[in-house]
Amino acid sequence: MSRPPPTSVLLPTVRWTDACDDVAAQLRPEDELLVVCDGDDDPVAARADELPDGVRLVRAGDPERCSGKANAVAAGMDAASNDRIVWTDDDFHHPPDWLSTLHADYERHGPVSEVPFFVGRDPLSVLVEPLYALGGTLGTHAGDKAWAGAALFERDDLDADAFLSELRLTVSDDGLLSEHLDATSLRRTRRVPVGGSVRESLERHVRFSKIVYRHEPRDMAVLLAVGAALTLAGALFPGPVAVLATLLTAFVYAYFGVGRWTVLLAYPAMMLQVPLFAYGLARRTFVWGGRRYRWPSKFDVRVVE
């Protein structure tokens, strides 16, 4: 395999985490890691004068018409020195061969993305792990959708100007990237801890529900219809449906190489999916990263607080 071109890795975060160290250690001399924060008030900004070689701090500023994450990614794309781009997040472990493996995947497939497996840290996020496995993991992989936690592409793989223009007007960075980029979703998972409190998990579910609704409204209609049918079947025939739901979820877990006892929660999670989606769609606002947003339409985002 030929040597990959110089690469810019974008990592939005407000604090220095183990993920920053993981990625910085994998840089070649010609690569760069752009740690993107909001501004000087973020804890990571205090490290600006003591960053490892190849690491730069980018201050994105406060978002005005998009989410803080979308604003950070757009600022990182503008600041990147290279045409080969990697997106990643600060909340999961990056093994020592993470970056080199993505480069090898790109040589075989073109633009690529890994998939997340969300691991709950509070009662609600633990309970809905099977839903996240079916939607967030299997759904992302089966639909060849990009995940912002681990995506590699080059600027010429998409219309970068059009993408960035829209990115500054919306909430979901990877939801929009999936519309602009023809990527291959790899069957390689990264375990991402989520939640911490029931309130935080509810806000996350609201955001996920609205992302699906804004970017894939037909998918949301299908999810609600299928979910309603399964809920009715689960109420009428709880035993058989519980067995089938558990077996299906166990297959998905095994397919992605995940061993988690939460597979046993497949039936109660299934019975909750329609009420949770309905709650998510009914909410007018949601909180993400300390900011409250109202999202009336796909390219109309209002920072409320």
TrEMBL record:
Keywords: Membrane, Transferase, Transmembrane, Transmembrane helix
Transmembrane regions: 222-255, 261-282
Iron listed as a keyword: no
The organism's place on the tree of life at top rank: Archaea
GO MF entries: transferase activity
Name used for this protein in its record: Glycosyl transferase family 2
Residues annotated as domain Glycosyltransferase 2-like: 21-121
Entry keyword annotation includes Transcription: no
Record organism: Halogeometricum rufum
SUPFAM superfamilies in UniProt: Nucleotide-diphospho-sugar transferases
CDD domains: Glyco_tranf_GTA_type (cd00761)
